[in-house]
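Field reference: sequence -> structure
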Amino acid sequence: MVGGGLFEKEFKQVRSLFLLLVIFNSFAVPFSVWSQYSGHMELVKKYPDYTPEPFVFQFGADPLLFISSLFVFFIAINQIGTERAKGIMDFTLSLPYMRSKIFFVKWVLAFGMIVLSTLISLILTGSYIEWHDIAVSQPLFSYYFLYFSSLVMFYTLTLSAGALTGTPFAQGLTAISASVLPLLFTFVITGNIQAFSNDSYVEMEKWYEAGYLLTPAIQFFGGIIFRDIPSEYRYYFLIPGCMAILFYLIGHFSFIKHPNERNGNFFLWKELNLPVQMIVILLGVLGFSLSGYGISSGNFSGYIIGALIGAAISILLGYYLIYKKSKQA
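Structure field:
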């Protein structure tokens, strides 16, 4: 297997998902613009005496990015987690290629599909908007820069999670957990501070804003940034772009240095077990203690009981999810 053999092998393994990603990502936004604008014009023709509001296409006011993120999520899991679970990874690693090249080829194939489909969508959407002189909620390129950088970031995060974990389930859970971790930490820590201090929401708002900006999943599930991008956030796409670079470096290093053979462990590098377990316990204690404090109407005993419940649940979750070995090995 020489030349483009590795590219061909990696492409064939996930070609169905690649094809679905390109089709959906290329035509979803143009179709949305066409259908909404056509519906508006039909309404104008049907009721000529009715004066509707001027048509403005709202970028990001739909779940398109979330759906596209599901495609790249499952592509990344198939490229590493499923390949390892089926034993194909052992064959891949036996090929005459460096591990760094194998990881790069996996990443660059998906990156190319995201680039191709995003460019097609941009050209089709931009042409239709210009042809019909449609007003939009934000600059076209601002939306697509963020759309593109967000997809690349989430794909790279999931792929890198596969280089750290030993099963498809562990890869998916790690990727999802990491994508919401900054916001989760922000809420539980600021919530605990507010419970025992006089700091108001306004005083804590800067911490909430930082949590939102640094949370990879926020644009997929919240969509607030896509619906209304203030001028001060016009370069927000640089944040997911920088995150993608960071995640790639982590995944690249892990794929080279850590064992990639199938072993059934949650983390391929067992030294990660304890630190992750401690993070899970910390979040469980802080989260449940805050809930107990609220349910008990500010009673400190409720806080302690909640902390104990959170610690017990976190320890059990850590054992069954992190330490208990999968039977697939």
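Note: Residues 5-174+195-261 form one domain.
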